[in-house]
Inverse folding.
């Protein structure tokens, strides 16, 4: 989190709310958040929003004078349009764009790591920025056929989260997509049959679309700190599989969990829990 559906709903809501608004002042309190120095941050002052766009998990704010603010929230960032200004001691603040009447577009980051980033760019620099230029095709709404795209000797769980292969999917929605497609997270991309690749593509479109439909109903400005989580598989180990009722199993990694259905996805096999096997060494 946030992945494609969270960024897409943020882009939609901000695209409806921001155009016409003028930035009064701009601050980047996070030490590492602002990755550019030319144009300077204060070049944003007095600029008016003209649009908001998304690509993969990235978002950019378009301003008059051909400036853009490109941002990546990474795993723990949030963007919100608040009716009040953040306190100066708020340690989660990474970017504060102050608007009239004390309102504020705020990028915050939770947790211990500072990884979310912001770039102020000229509009003609945007396409060449490596963070955008390196991205694979969008996972939603119309990804390309996956048989050729995923033709690599790597497990699906890692391939699908590789933004240079296909962009928009992370640790949460990959579990839902693989469950609907009835594919093992450890199946290799180059082992996919044509039918499996097509099932995976269909699951990707339907699952990301399902989540976005939920957000369309439930997410609004100021944009939530905690999104509703319409998950049915990810982190639901111990619950019944939404497809077949088998109890879902999980593999625990250092900072995330991979959840799957043994019946639908791994030929009945319960995969080794790496946390447990490390303890037993
Ligand atoms: Zn199942």
């Amino acid at each position: 989190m946030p992945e494609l559906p969270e960024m897409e709903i943020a882009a939609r809501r901000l695209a409806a709310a921001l155009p016409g608004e003028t930035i009064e002042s701009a601050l980047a309190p996070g030490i590492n958040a602002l990755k550019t120095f030319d144009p300077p941050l204060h070049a944003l002052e007095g600029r008016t929003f003209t649009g908001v766009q998304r690509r993969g998990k990235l978002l950019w704010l378009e301003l008059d004078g051909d400036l853009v603010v490109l941002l990546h929230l990474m795993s723990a960032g949030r963007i919100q349009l608040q009716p009040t200004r953040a306190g100066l001691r708020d340690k989660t603040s990474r970017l504060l764009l102050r608007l009239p009447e004390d309102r504020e577009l705020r990028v915050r980051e939770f947790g211990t790591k500072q990884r979310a980033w912001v770039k102020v760019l000229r509009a003609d620099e945007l396409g060449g920025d490596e963070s955008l230029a390196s991205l694979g095709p969008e996972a939603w709404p119309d990804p390309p056929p996956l048989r050729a795209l995923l033709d690599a000797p790597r497990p699906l769980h890692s391939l699908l989260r590789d933004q240079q292969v296909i962009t928009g999917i992370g640790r949460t929605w990959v579990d839902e997509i693989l469950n609907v497609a009835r594919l093992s997270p450890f199946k290799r991309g180059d082992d996919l049959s044509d039918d499996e690749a097509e099932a995976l593509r269909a699951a990707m479109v339907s699952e990301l679309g399902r989540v976005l439909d939920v957000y369309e109903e439930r997410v609004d400005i100021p944009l939530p700190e905690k999104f509703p989580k319409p998950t049915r598989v990810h982190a639901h180990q111990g619950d019944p599989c939404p497809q077949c009722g088998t109890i879902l199993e999980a593999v625990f990694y250092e900072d995330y969990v991979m959840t799957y259905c043994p019946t639908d996805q791994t030929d009945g096999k319960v995969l080794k829990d790496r946390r447990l096997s490390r303890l037993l060494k």
